[in-house]
Amino acid sequence: MSHDRPHLVRTPEEVRTVLDAHRRAGRTIGFVPTMGALHEGHLSLVRAAAAADDVVVVSIFVNPLQFGEGEDLDAYPRTLDADLDLLAPEGVALVFSPAPSTFTPETRRTTVHVEGLTGGLEAATRPTHFDGVTTIVTKLFNVVGADHAYFGEKDFQQQAILRRMALDLDMRTEVVTCPIVREADGLALSSRNVYLSGEQRRDALALSQALRELADGWEGNVDSGRSTLLGRLTAAQGIQLDYAEIIDPETLEPLEGVRSGDCQAVVAAWVGTTRLIDTMRLRV
Ligand SMILES: Nc1ncnc2c1ncn2[C@@H]1O[C@H](COP(=O)(O)OP(=O)(O)OP(=O)(O)O)[C@@H](O)[C@H]1O
Ligand SMILES: CC(C)(CO)[C@@H](O)C(=O)[O-]
Ligand code: BAL
User: Fold this and answer.
1) Contact 277, 153 (CB under 8 A)
2) Additional info (predicted)?
């Protein structure tokens, strides 16, 4: 069965016009912010939104504010036509894909910054990244005015920061975190996987495999767990480890000693020039 592509709009005004009518009719709005190059991970967020909300909105915007100097802003895959085709059967009411020149103009003077959670892990390598994310997500939340916004657990630090931001700033949009979607062999789906050669893709499996082994054997010993994870990933072929940490899932603080409560393992590594992240919950 063929489906119509979702309605594509380019300006905040058009989004508001369409969504105001739904709001007046008492419908809830679920929002899925993305940078496009959509895959099953994104579609799982769209399906979570469709299951809980009456109207689903997806944004597709490769946000220049969250890319540091020398990162892959220009190379980042932009596949709007294919994205709209993928969304067609998913019951998405609206796709918002603004032009960078109007949505992030040179004249912008405001940055949204979340203290504390934005200091380590991803931010150690990408120091300006989260200010770019929180600023753009604030803009998107203001434009869409959703009841719920759906984010992937894969970007674990990001969802914790956005949850805090929405709480601290009394945003009307509630942040909902959804599980990671993986390939059959465990590799976490990512738009950046398209950069990988066949050999690099095989090397990249070390990330999910090391996390899986850690989670399967987890008895709460953070120190030995962390050194096993580090040992496994520093020895892995074709991978240059950035970090491997076991953290508190709420505060994101690195943990020590023995813990009976839930912990979160987070890793980041370069496979060639591609930087990948992955994460897994550790439960005794
Ligand atoms: N494998 C996945 N499972 C579930 N959600 C995912 C997955 N990959 C990405 N997401 C979520 O999709 C949303 C949009 O992410 P984004 O467009 O950056 O995709 P991405 O695949 O993470 O790309 P990148 O490789 O650039 O990080 C984010 O909330 C992200 O956490
Ligand atoms: C949340 C987001 C769409 C903001 O640009 C991006 O960081 C992403 O895709 O995870
Ligand atoms: N999913 C986070 C987007 C980024 O890496 O910039």
Assistant:
1) no
2) The reaction proceeds by a bi uni uni bi ping pong mechanism.
